[in-house]
TrEMBL record:
Pfam families: EFG_C, GTP_EFTU, GTP_EFTU_D2, LepA_C. The gene is lepA. Required for accurate and efficient protein synthesis under certain stress conditions. May act as a fidelity factor of the translation reaction, by catalyzing a one-codon backward translocation of tRNAs on improperly translocated ribosomes. Back-translocation proceeds from a post-translocation (POST) complex to a pre-translocation (PRE) complex, thus giving elongation factor G a second chance to translocate the tRNAs correctly. Binds to ribosomes in a GTP-dependent manner. This is Elongation factor 4. The lineage of its organism: Bacteria, Bacillati, Bacillota, Bacilli, Bacillales. One of its GO terms (molecular function) is hydrolase activity. CDD domains: EF4_II (cd03699), EF4_III (cd16260), LepA (cd01890), lepA_C (cd03709).
Length: 598
């Protein structure tokens, strides 16, 4: 029977514990890639991902494996993204599996993301196989980490594979355990088709390529398929699997993993978590767990050169093709001109998109500080969702404002508990719980406003714990807070792109810190420039940039011509990221400055 020889599994791990390296070794061991083709981290496709050492787009590979029992198996390895921003995608790709390798670094032990991923795997009823990786490191302590896996996660680690993905140790044992322990897929091959979409990418020639797992029935070329949530229908032109190169197949049936192509022009029609069925013989119920995910963090993206506006729109259009969770709409700022308000799943997602626009499309950007979505209850009964601080109504019209909260778990060595608690207090956190993992490590649980996490939380956490803290969070809902809009005035004019929303108790301190910071960031102009922070009409802080005294070029006159040219070039370079706001030249950093004060 076909299903009996299939094993569908993922690799879950904390960032940097070696997931991609292990995936490479598995590809190598199963002979999926020839020596010549073997390149590091095949599953991490994009350069950007490689540079940052993170996995964004998940994928699947179909690997033939001859096990020690003499049988030929088909292993489908489904890759998962490794960051908290993409939790929903991780959970859907885990739903496509029956088992998961849990990779834990033998010198680091269990981290926040290890646990978060284990919970996702358990929610999806996966068989979890612990792998203690990096045993080649001198600092490796596999016995301690095994014990941690048992004590902290509650998994039996007596059979945990001791491995080194780097040195190629333990790979075969891992594959044998996958065959032995991961259950073969169940599901009814004769039932109406139900296939789970766990990812999709846009290909300029074929249109959208859907990555999916067939749960019931069979999917084949020529079939008219229907996506049950979006209710879109298409005729399937190709069915296949990645091995790891695409291989066209006649059909894929219950338990199998692969791709479908159907001349689809928009990834929005192929939502992660949606169910594909046969339009002519539809299933009664979709697969469980579909959720429409909404962006959590918004910011304004503006071209430095106004003439690049159309290029920016084209870039966003192209990126959107591949990224159903990116949203954007035109926005105008008095300070920055024409640009776009963009929505992202989280901060990392935001940084990735910004970087791709600048690097792949060559458009220098001015980005405004990220904001969360606030719910504003007006006295007239209307409720607004505000994702741009500028749009906050006047104070008199507001009954109350609610902001999104998260539950955050922070794992940290004992010595840093005090430091971390202090950071959390500073970030308006409510302490919930503290748990000792062992004699040396603690998990702290806090309720925190998402906006405070957006404001530099992660960097502060890392730098004040020498990088030892690890962190994970989930959204828990909205709560009322005493929030006000702070405006920044340059030369007496409100700069809309610098407005932000802040808790009233911190408003004074933030206003002071920000004006001070701006004074340092904004270069001197030919005239004096006052910088003010104001709530409504009330100015709460003021700084002044004094006027420029000398022409900087003056000292070059008569001097070395190449030095003069260098200076000019340097100024030009600096100019690129300057935006004229009224008559004041403001550098890019100023628009992000609010993130870096505390
Ligand atoms: P994300 O994609 O960010 O989730 O990281 P990852 O878990 O995929 O980690 P990756 O495979 O990129 O490995 C992270 C680092 O650890 C790299 O520098 C690897 O070379 C190194 N590494 C991976 N496995 C081993 C191992 O067994 N031993 C040693 N010494 N280093 C390893």
């Amino acid at each position: 029977e076909r299903q009996a020889i299939i094993r569908n599994f993922s690799i879950i791990a904390h960032i940097d514990h070696g997931k991609s390296t292990l995936a490479d070794r598995i590809l190598e061991k199963t002979g999926a890639l020839s020596e010549r083709e073997m390149q590091d981290q095949f599953l991490d496709k994009m350069d950007l991902e490689r540079e940052r050492g993170i996995t964004i787009k998940l994928q699947s590979v179909r690997l033939p494996y001859k096990a020690k029992d003499g049988k030929e198996y088909i292993l489908n390895l489904i890759d998962t993204p490794g960051h908290v921003d993409f939790t929903y995608e991780v959970s859907r790709s885990l739903q496509a599996c029956e088992g998961a390798l849990l990779v834990v670094d033998a010198s680091q032990g269990v981290e926040a993301q290890t646990l978060a991923n284990v919970y996702l795997a358990l929610e999806n009823d996966l068989e979890i196989i612990p792998v203690i990786n990096k045993i080649d490191l001198p600092s490796a302590d596999p016995e301690r980490v095994k014990k941690e896996v048992e004590d902290v996660i509650g998994l039996d680690a007596s059979d945990a594979v001791l491995a080194s993905a780097k040195a190629g140790i333990g790979i075969e044992e891992i594959l044998e355990q996958v065959v032995e322990k991961v259950p073969a897929p169940e599901g009814d091959p004769d039932a109406p088709l139900r296939a789970l979409i766990f990812d999709s990418v846009y290909d300029p020639y074929k249109g959208v390529i859907i990555y999916m797992r067939v749960v019931d029935g069979t999917i084949k070329k020529g079939m008219r398929m229907r996506m049950m949530a979006t209710e879109k229908e298409y005729d399937i032109t190709e069915v296949g699997a990645f091995a790891p190169h695409p291989v066209i197949m006649n059909e894929l049936s219950a338990g199998e993993v692969g791709f479908v192509v159907a001349n689809i022009k928009n990834v929005r029609d192929t939502r992660v978590g949606d169910t594909i069925t046969d339009a002519n013989n539809p299933a009664d119920e979709p697969l469980p767990g579909y959720r429409r995910i909404n962006p959590m963090v918004f910011c304004g993206l503006y071209p430095v050169e106004s003439s690049a506006y159309d290029d920016l729109r084209e870039a966003l259009e192209k990126l959107e093709l591949n990224d159903a969770s990116l949203t954007y709409e035109p926005e105008t700022s008095t300070a920055l001109g024409f640009g776009f308000r963009c929505g992202f799943l989280g901060l990392l997602h935001m940084e990735i998109i910004q970087e791709r626009i600048e690097r792949e499309f060559g458009i220098p950007l001015i980005t405004t500080a990220p904001s969360v979505v606030y719910k504003v209850y007006q006295t007239d009964g209307k409720v607004l969702e505000i994702e741009n601080p500028t749009l906050m109504p006047e104070m008199q019209k507001i009954d109350r404002v609610e902001e999104p909260y998260v539950k955050a778990s922070i794992m940290v060595p004992n010595d840093y508990v005090g430091t971390v608690m202090e950071i959390c207090q500073n970030k308006r956190g409510n302490y919930l719980d503290m748990n000792y993992l062992d004699t040396n490590r603690v998990t702290l649980t806090y309720e925190l406003p998402l906006a405070e996490i957006v404001y530099d939380f992660f960097d502060q956490l890392k730098s004040s714990t020498k990088g030892y803290a690890s962190f994970d969070y989930e959204l828990i809902g909205y709560k009322a807070s005493n929030l006000v809009k702070m405006d920044i005035l340059l030369n007496g004019e409100v700069v809309d792109a610098l407005s932000f929303i802040v808790h009233r108790d911190r408003a004074y301190q933030r206003g002071r810190a920000l004006t001070e910071k701006l004074r340092k960031l904004i270069p001197r102009q030919m005239f004096e420039v006052p910088i003010q922070a104001a709530i409504g009409n009330k100015v709460i802080a003021r700084e002044t940039i004094s006027a420029m005294r000398k022409n900087v070029l003056a000292k070059c006159y008569g001097g070395d011509i190449s030095r003069k040219r260098k200076l000019l070039e340097k100024q030009k370079e600096g100019k690129k990221r300057m935006k004229a706001v009224g008559s004041v030249e403001v550098p890019q950093e100023a628009f992000m400055a609010v993130l870096k004060i505390d």
